[in-house]
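Ticket #242: bound-state structure for magnesium ion.
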Amino acid sequence: MAEPPAPAEALRLTGIRKSFNAGSPNAVEILHGIDLTLQQGEFCALIGPSGSGKSTLLNIIGLLDRQSAGQLSIGGDPTAGLSDAALTELRGRRIGFVFQAHNLIGAFTALENVMMPRLLASNWPDATMRQAAAALLAKVGLERWADARVNNLSGGQAQRVAIARALAMDPVLVLADEPTGNLDTAAADSVFDLLRHMNRQRGTTFLVVTHDPRLAARCDRVIELVDGLVRADTRQQATGPA
Ligand SMILES: Nc1ncnc2c1ncn2[C@@H]1O[C@H](COP(=O)(O)OP(=O)(O)O)[C@@H](O)[C@H]1O
Ligand SMILES: [Mg+2]
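RESOLUTION: The complex was predicted; output attached.
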């Protein structure tokens, strides 16, 4: 019998280093050589002390910042040698972001915010974009809030809109930097459950920075960053609801 096919890669990092203020007297290297591969469909926590380089690493993976050395590929596509325009295109098409502060446009409606990535990406017919965005809002439990301005939503609701927006382009990888950091425990649990549910339902790969050990316990894999290096990388049986 033939071997089952190897699962596809969502992300591969090899020897990623990052220095700030390179070439100046106060140059400082923050990431010291990160090797990491995520397979499609994995739900991973990124943990580590404050200042260990988690956000710096996420910004590099998300093509928002460039590494000083090392290689990065997204969904099997190498990024070496790509122009800024090509990186922007790759980011828009293949990566979704959820930040601690939701980064939505407060004066726009929930629906408009979820439509934004497709509006920016191409000339989709307006009706198709609306339908797709409305369907995503229904999936995150906000069907009735589609026409509400984000400014009028609770923190937990806004994070749900941010999750719908992150999934709008059906990305291979969603990066979430402390997505529940501003929420109370109940709202944090429910936002985390939603991320987990989207992972299981759509097979999207997630890399989620969290300080909360309870939430990390609910991931398939926990990657610990300490002083700019991966100190531990543990696969586990996730606890908690789907
Ligand atoms: N733009 C920057 N210029 C200089 N130093 C930075 C910059 N961004 C982050 N750092 C430093 O890099 C280190 C790691 O920061 P960060 O990635 O935000 O850590 P974490 O998200 O794990 O708390 C910190 O010491 C921080 O001060
Ligand atoms: Mg951070």
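RESOLUTION NOTES: The pocket of adenosine-5'-diphosphate (ligand 1) is lined by residues 20, 30, 48, 50-56 (CB under 6 Å).
TICKET STATUS: resolved
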